[in-house]
Amino acid sequence: MSNMTETSNTTDTTTTLTERNERKNELPRNAAEVTTTATRRRKPLIVVRSMWSHTEGRFALIVMAVWLAVSLISLIWTPYSLLATDGYHVWAKPSAAHILGTDGTGADVLSWLMAGSRTNLLIVILTIACAAAFGLLLVAAMVSRHSALAGASVVAVDALISIPTVLLALILAVPLGASIMVIVVACGFGYGLNLARVARPQALLAARSAYVEAALWSGASSLRVFVGHVLPNIMPVMLVQLSLSAGTAVLAESGLTYLGIGVPSGVPSWGHSLATSVKFINVYPLTVLWPGLIVTVVVIALNLLGDALGDAADPLANTQLRVVSKRAGTNPAGDKGSAA
């Protein structure tokens, strides 16, 4: 009985020590997880601060904020109803009643431009989402370890990228008619091809690196490797390219709407305001000036936004982001540096 009691006490003591050791090991692990989570939350703030510290980035952020604010305000308020017209005050000059004047139907130009801002914002968001999804799918195929799939994808991109966006929009307009979907699909397809071609070299370099080989040998799936290792490496290039595509989408909306295959008649957009007033530019130039000026400023801001965001989100170019990544124990280039 005495031996059994001693054995039982020894077992209990060993169990207690084991539980204490496990608790001690859990504490650093939990602390590391908290640190990593806090670091991830700080990264967007660091990126925004870095962009704000440069003149180009500050200008782009201000324009984007104003664009978003005007789009939201136009959902609930505009100076005049879009259906309100005044036949006695057509092509009126700017005044206290109509800050930017009126168009050929006597409608308030400012109201139409405010309402058009949300249409253009919607087109840009949908186009960029479509281009990003299609482009990343092509990049994944182009850096695939299946040589046949990779080779066929490269050839397909080189062949399809030669198709003009306007021609594709004309083809889509036959079954769909003039609609926002024509702009989104045509531009998303063309910009996705450009994104794949620009991002392929960087993605291929990451896909053939030693840490990706280690991750694959450890049993990580191709999707996990692409999302965890390849995508972070191409993110700066991707942000710049998508920002340029956003600016081009604004121009494409104006051009396709002018051709009659873009935004339908009656739907407010900047392209619609340009298309309805460009015929009278020699007589009433102010009606063309306002939408043209807005499109120009927004396109410039989107282009500057891509450059500023690409530099701010790149740990190799942003010192603060690189320091935070090192404190979190991650690779400054955006990769974990170990098998997933």
TrEMBL record:
Topology class, membrane: Multi-pass membrane protein
PANTHER family to which the protein is assigned, alphabetical: D,D-DIPEPTIDE TRANSPORT SYSTEM PERMEASE PROTEIN DDPC-RELATED, OLIGOPEPTIDE TRANSPORT SYSTEM PERMEASE PROTEIN APPC
Any one Gene Ontology cellular component term annotated for this protein: plasma membrane
Originating organism: Bifidobacterium goeldii
Keywords, in A-Z order: Cell membrane, Membrane, Transmembrane, Transmembrane helix, Transport
Record localization: Cell membrane
The family this protein is said to belong to: Belongs to the binding-protein-dependent transport system permease family.
GO annotation terms (biological process): transmembrane transport
Protein name per Swiss-Prot or TrEMBL: Dipeptide/oligopeptide/nickel ABC transporter permease
Transmembrane segments: 59-80, 121-141, 148-172, 178-198, 282-305
Keyword Cell membrane: yes
Lineage of producing organism: Bacteria, Bacillati, Actinomycetota, Actinomycetes, Bifidobacteriales
UniProt feature, compositional bias: Low complexity: 1-18
Membrane listed as a keyword: yes
PROSITE patterns in the cross-refs: ABC_TM1 (PS50928)
Annotated segments matching region Disordered: 1-36
InterPro entries, per the entry: BP-dependent_transpt_permease, MetI-like, MetI-like_sf
Domain ABC transmembrane type-1: 117-306
